[in-house]
Amino acid sequence: MKRLIYQVAVGPQSKLYQKCIQSVKEYCEKYDITHIVQTIPLLMIKPDPFLSNRSEGASRLGYLPIFEKENAFEYINSFDQIAIIDADIFIRDLAPNIFEDITSKYAFGAVAEREMPITPHYANKIKNYSIMQYANISHTGDYKPNAIGFEFYNMGVMVINCEKFKPYLKGQKPREFLTRKEFKPFIDGMGNWKWSTDQTLLNYWVKKEIIPTLNMNWKWNGLYKGIEDNRLPEAYFINFFLKDKLPERGENVQQLMKDIGVE
Question: N or C: which end of the chain has fewer CB within 10 A?
Answer without folding.
Answer: C
